[in-house]
Design brief:
Number of helices: 19
CATH topology of the largest domain: Rossmann fold
Number of strands: 16
CATH class of the largest domain: Alpha Beta
Shape: flat
Strand content: 5-15%
Strand order of the largest sheet: 2-1-3-4-5
CATH architecture of the largest domain: 3-Layer(aba) Sandwich
CATH superfamily of the largest domain: P-loop containing nucleotide triphosphate hydrolases
Largest sheet: 5 strands, parallel
Length: about 450
């Protein structure tokens, strides 16, 4: 068990010794100081988890000492002590960063309880920071291609403003990740991020879902409930698939955007909301407007800053980096030790169309991570656990004469040998052309030919 370190600071040596003795008996490492300068000197040499500071000391007083300590280490826990406690002093101590304020004379119970609370608070803050870092890395828009660099630049610039953003792009391109990035980099980051999938809400429930309802407003409304706008107060609301919002709701949404007020279903008055709205769509809203399916005035309200997320096929140079990123995250999630994909496996994946973009790629990699037996995902694993490129899951492979007996590995070995032999035959034994057709490196194909015992009459 890690021993926690406490620094006790008081100009009365007897008080320092008494508190230090209490803490030492409970297993803490304790440092003692009788002045602010001495406390700063100790903190410069030793990592301190919690400091107990007397408010009144000659020279540098407790509050000044605390400010100096926190300037050096913002994460240090602080407890102020005083024989003359007042509300004003307690408020000043809290503003300076103190977590607790103890009135003298001190008891062992008071001191130990206060220290344990401060340590628990620090642990929770550390866990929260770790979680945020983890979520942040999971929610990154990965890619070094020119289109992705451009997208991140625009999102970073708009995030610090209050401008509305309209995210466009095919399904699976990362529109929600982009919205979360805007929220995370904005002054609203500490407030809620709320998502509404407009394509998943029945039209009769749309108004209640967005604006809330009062008790008895309709059958089943057994209690009052805030809508998504109220839930996102001071934060960000993502209206995903905005192109699927019914026209009647578009009118009501436009009014909310103009007035910053919502009225619950069955309510009698309006409620002020402070919400940043980000919209996303995979539809062509210009076409929808020309067909009378989307309001022009709402479009212009939402489309202050348009951002288009590129499809996966538009940024092929990002594919290896994206696979590596997803593979690391998925391996951690499922407790697997998958280190990488073999060149052949990566080539097989890169050769696919991926109409579902990053979301489809992530799902495919998750299946491979779960089912692949080794710490490297091989091309055989791709063949075994994913439908061949160009085929939907469940469709038959064009390979004829597939073996129906033997283990999975044995059957795959026979099939792979037949595929390579057939491709060599189709390319008149030309290894270079065959490797290109199969999405393999030439050296890798040579190795496969040797391993599988493929008969050939190859050209150089």
């Amino acid at each position: 068990m890690i021993r926690r370190t406490v620094l006790v600071v008081d100009d009365m040596k007897s008080a320092v010794d008494a508190v230090a003795r209490m803490l030492s008996l409970e297993g803490f490492d304790v440092h003692k100081a009788c002045s602010g300068d001495e406390a700063l000197s100790i903190a410069a040499q030793h990592p301190i988890d919690v400091v107990l500071l007397d408010v009144q000391m000659p020279g540098m007083d407790g509050l000044a000492t605390l400010e100096a300590l926190r300037a050096r280490d913002p994460g240090i826990g602080a407890i102020m002590m005083s024989a003359h406690a007042t509300v004003e002093r307690a408020v000043r101590a809290t503003k300076a960063g103190a977590h607790d304020f103890l009135e003298k004379p001190l008891t062992s119970e008071k001191v130990l309880l206060a220290v344990s609370h401060v340590l628990r608070f620090a642990d929770l803050e550390r866990e929260t920071a770790d979680l945020r870092r983890s979520l942040g890395s999971e929610q990154e828009l990965v890619g070094d291609s020119a289109p992705m660099v451009r997208v991140r630049q625009i999102l970073s610039r708009v995030a610090v403003t209050e401008g509305r953003v309209l995210l466009a792009g095919e399904s699976g391109t990362g529109k929600e990740l982009a919205a979360r990035m805007i929220h995370r980099l904005s002054p609203r980051a500490a407030a809620p991020f709320i998502t509404v999938n407009c394509a998943a809400i029945p039209s009769e429930l749309f108004e209640s879902e967005l604006f809330g309802h009062e008790k008895g407003a309709f059958t089943g409304a057994v209690r009052s409930r805030p809508g998504k706008f109220e839930q996102a107060h001071h934060g960000t609301l993502l209206l995903d698939e905005i192109g699927d919002m019914p026209l009647a709701m578009q009118v009501k949404l436009l009014r909310v955007l103009e007035t910053d007020e919502v009225e619950r279903v069955g309510g009698t008055g309006s409620r002020r909301v402070n919400v940043r709205v980000v919209a996303a769509t995979n539809r062509d809203l210009s076409l929808a407007m020309s067909r009378g399916q989307f309001r022009d005035d709402l479009y212009h309200r939402l489309n202050v800053v348009p951002v288009r997320l590129p499809s996966l096929r538009e940024r092929p140079e990002d594919f290896p980096l994206l696979v590596e990123h997803l593979l690391q995250r998925l391996s951690e999630t499922h407790g697997k030790r998958i280190r990488r994909l073999s060149p052949g496996a990566l080539s097989r994946l890169a050769a696919r169309e991926w109409p579902g973009n990053v979301r489809e790629l992530r799902n495919a990699l998750e299946r491979l991570v779960i089912l692949s037996p080794g710490d490297v995902i091989e091309d055989l694993d791709v063949d075994a656990f994913l439908a061949p490129a160009g085929l939907a899951p469940g469709e038959s492979s064009p390979v004829s004469g597939a073996p129906t007996a033997g283990s999975l590995r044995e059957r795959l070995r026979v099939m792979e040998r037949d595929i390579i032999a057939g491709s060599l035959d189709a390319n008149r034994g030309n290894v270079t052309a065959t490797a290109k057709a199969l999405g393999l490196e030439r050296s890798h194909l040579h190795r496969k030919i040797r391993e599988l015992g493929v008969d050939r009459d190859a050209e150089a």
